[in-house]
Amino acid sequence: MAPPTSSEITELRELSEGIARDAGSFAHAARRSLGAGTRAVHDTKSSDVDPVTEFDRATEAMIVERLRERRPDDAIVGEEGASHSGTSGFEWHIDPIDGTVNFVYDLPGWCTSIGVLHDGVPVAAAVFAPVVGELFSAGLGQGTTVNGESVFASAATDMATSLAATGFSYHLGEHRIVQAERIARLLPQLRDIRRLGSAALDLSYVAAGRVDSYFEEFLHSWDVAAGVLLVTEAGGELADFWGRGREFYERSGAIVAGSPAAVELLISHTSLTPHPERKL
């Protein structure tokens, strides 16, 4: 299918922005209704430490309803089980509450993430962090903004003074042991590392130059579909842990993002040894 025109990308971007803002605000109101510091009741998914709440499901249902009304021919892939095939070539990857652990514990680091792909290529993205009122947005060829203001990825070249972000697997045991050993080797050679609890926000912060780099594995399409476009449109670079491009980080679920120099340094550094299961 022919790639979308600039006006179509703008339309998709504005739609993703509006839905992300409305859905995130809905989830935020639900979180506030529980009371400050009250933990949200939750079930678990992939492991005992991977929570899902009724608000994740309700927010995803709201997003899907809006998309089916406005874009009935588009495909939808959602973290909480939404799956709709399409015929248009467009596919929406949605994470209603990315950072559910933070949401459960009433911490601010969660967001609603919506990424639009056309024939597998990211074309529009919106990440809304309702607790702090920030909307990160991008369109293919249009740059990245935060609340309408253009932002750009870091140009850091010195690993020793750079700030990195990362995340950890919800699978206990060997996965976390590998990740902990990696951090122990890498931390002495960086300014510091942040573990914020939301892949979509980590990538948003790379795009905004708030962290110099980000690396994580065991990710899914809904975790990164919006964030990867935010990063590239802000001038950042992306690869998997082996230095390969989009096709491979999507398949392996292992991603490195940041300034070109930071990405190269992290990939080339022996500390960034991926988990052996992940090389595809």
Please give a structural write-up.
The protein is α+β, with helices and mostly antiparallel strands and 280 residues long. The chain is built from eight helices and 15 strands. The protein has helices at residues 6-33, 54-70, 100-104, 174-186, 199-207, 221-233, 246-252, 260-268, and strands at 42-44, 51-53, 75-78, 83-84, 90-98, 111-118, 121-129, 134-139, 143-146, 149-151, 163-166, 192-194, 213-216, 237-239, 255-258. The strands form three sheets. Strands 4-3-5-6-7-8-9-10 form an eight-stranded mixed β-sheet, with helices on both faces. Strands 12-11-13-15-14 form a five-stranded mixed β-sheet, with helices on both faces. It starts with 5 loop residues before the first helix and ends in a 12-residue tail after the last helix.
Topology:
Blueprint: H1 6-33, E1 42-44, E2 51-53, H2 54-70, E3 75-78, E4 83-84, E5 90-98, H3 100-104, E6 111-118, E7 121-129, E8 134-139, E9 143-146, E10 149-151, E11 163-166, H4 174-186, E12 192-194, H5 199-207, E13 213-216, H6 221-233, E14 237-239, H7 246-252, E15 255-258, H8 260-268
Parallel strand pairs: 3-5, 11-12, 11-13
Antiparallel strand pairs: 1-2, 3-4, 5-6, 6-7, 7-8, 8-9, 9-10, 13-15, 14-15
Helix pairs in contact: 1-2, 5-6
Q: Could you give the order of strands across the largest sheet?
A: 4-3-5-6-7-8-9-10
H and E string: HEEHEEEHEEEEEEHEHEHEHEH
Alpha carbon gyration radius:
18 Å
**Proportion in helices:** 25-40%
SSE class? alpha+beta
Calculate the mean pLDDT score and round it.
89
Tally of helical runs:
8
Oligomer: single chain
Uncertain stretches of 5 or more adjacent residues: none
Distance between the amino and carboxyl termini: 28 Å
